[in-house]
Write a structure and sequence with these properties.
The complex is a heterodimer. Chain A is of the alpha+beta class. Chain A folds into two domains: 2-152, no CATH class; 157-295. In chain A, 58% of the residues lie in helices and 12% in strands. Chain A contains twelve helices and seven strands. Chain A has helices spanning 2-22, 34-59, 63-73, 77-91, 100-131, 136-150, 156-159, 187-196, 207-214, 216-230, 265-273, 289-295, and strands spanning 160-165, 167-170, 173-176, 179-183, 198-204, 244-247, 254-258. Chain A has a four-stranded antiparallel β-sheet with strand order 1-5-7-6. Chain A has a three-stranded antiparallel β-sheet with strand order 2-3-4, with helices on one face. The longest helix of chain A has 32 residues, at 100-131. Chain B is an alpha+beta fold. Chain B has one domain (17-70). Helix content of chain B is 21%, strand content 25%. Chain B is built from one helix and four strands, in the order E-E-H-E-E. Chain B has one helix spanning 41-55, and strands at residues 17-22, 35-37, 58-61, 66-70. In chain B, strands 2-1-4-3 form a four-stranded mixed β-sheet, with helices on one face. Classes of the chains: A alpha+beta, B alpha+beta. Chains A and B meet through helix 8 of A and helix 1 and strand 3 of B.
């Protein structure tokens, strides 16, 4: 039994460490609250234990126990529901909403990370069982690095060029370069926009990226991330300065407009480059034969 | 146990002209929404600003001397 103790402990330790490292939190990443993090660390612990116990259960051999483990793993499907529900509830009181695509993406990531933890713990305890404790110091960090790398996904900066756009008015229409944003009636609002507004053009690099930026969910995610870092001058019942992203219908690139609390153009561009590409909005036309043919 | 869900409805009128503000009454035939007559450009801007704040909408300009308030 003493042998199994080390096996399980090694699996749990590496698994939990993995969950903790995956739980990066900054302005954009949810959760930012200590309690939210605790919930996920606790779930990570459970996931790690599940993975770690599996190897001794097979080695013993106790196949009934393994069946129960599979049943327990089903519980992690609830994680996605939990995250989705919380974020959707919070959406109602947000001035600038995340959008359902972004929420779905976050929820999926949270579920997937638990499976990743189970896998890490399983492989680590397997290593200890098979070859001995010292090998876990090689395999553990390797697995953690691998899961960090695999789960990072791509960013807007990888699929599009982001550059400054010129804000101007054509009559009462607010334009960023040649893209019509909206109709602004009051002269004082126009002046405020001209003084403090920032415009950005997001040019997709290929057809996949164009489809991706087309998705309203992806645009909402961009706007949400920008607002959560730079702030916006929108208030309840004062929605005139609502940030928005519109596309140039002929060329397919996006124009974004925002009146931020921190008008820093360079940082705005950097933030947009770091917005994750949403799984649900990802364009895949170039993977299909007809898509490739149509693109040339 | 029956799950109870509170359904919250947005009962405001979105994407609908809530009010029209103009100095030129000949250009507007009364329709489904109130029309406010202003005596000059300045008053027109002021009235529409107040209405927009009260109604939670934003002011649009039709570029022919007519402003209207709409909620999006």
């Amino acid at each position: 039994m003493g042998g199994y103790g080390t096996v399980i402990a090694a699996g749990i330790t590496v698994g939990l460490l993995n969950r903790w490292l995956l739980l990066r939190s900054d302005y954009r990443h949810y959760p930012t609250y200590p309690h939210g993090q605790l919930i996920h660390l606790a779930l990570g612990f459970i996931a790690a234990s599940l993975g770690a116990v599996a190897v001794p259960a097979i080695a013993k051999p106790d196949f009934v126990a393994v069946t129960f483990l599979v049943l327990a793993a089903q519980q992690f499907r609830e994680v996605r529901n939990m995250e989705r529900e919380t974020l959707t509830q919070l959406e109602e009181t947000k001035l600038v909403s995340r959008g359902t695509d972004y929420i779905e993406g976050i929820a999926r990531v949270f579920e997937a990370r638990n499976y990743l933890v189970i896998m890490t713990a399983l492989l680590c305890s397997g290593t200890v069982q098979q070859w001995g404790l010292k090998y876990v110091f090689v395999v553990g960090p390797l697995l953690i690095l691998l899961s960090l790398k695999l789960m990072s996904g791509s960013y807007i900066g990888d699929i599009a060029r982001v550059q400054e756009g010129r804000i101007h008015f054509k009559g009462s229409l607010l334009m960023v370069d040649d893209v019509v944003m909206m109709n602004v009636g009051l002269p004082q609002t126009r002046k405020k926009i001209m003084d403090e507004g920032m415009g950005v053009i997001i040019k997709p690099m290929d057809d996949n990226a164009r489809l991706n930026l087309d998705a309203p969910g992806q645009r909402k995610a961009i706007i949400h991330d920008v607002v959560s870092i730079l702030g916006s001058k929108v208030d309840v019942n004062e929605t005139e300065l609502m940030p928005m992203a519109r596309k140039q219908v002929d060329q397919g690139y996006l124009a974004m407009f925002i009146v931020a609390n921190e008008p820093d153009m360079e940082m705005l561009i950097e933030i947009i480059k770091k917005v994750p590409v949403l799984e649900s909005a990802r364009g895949t036309t170039l993977l299909s034969y007809y898509g490739r043919k149509a693109a040339d | 146990m029956v799950e109870r869900r509170q359904i919250k409805m947005n009962t405001g009128l979105n994407e609908y002209i809530l009010a029209i503000v103009t100095c030129e009454k000949d250009r507007v035939i009364s329709g489904g929404c109130p029309v406010f007559l202003a005596s000059g450009q300045e008053e027109m801007e002021h009235i529409s600003l107040l209405l927009a704040r009260i109604l939670g909408g934003i002011v649009h300009d039709l570029e022919n001397g007519i402003y209207f308030i709409c909620k999006h």
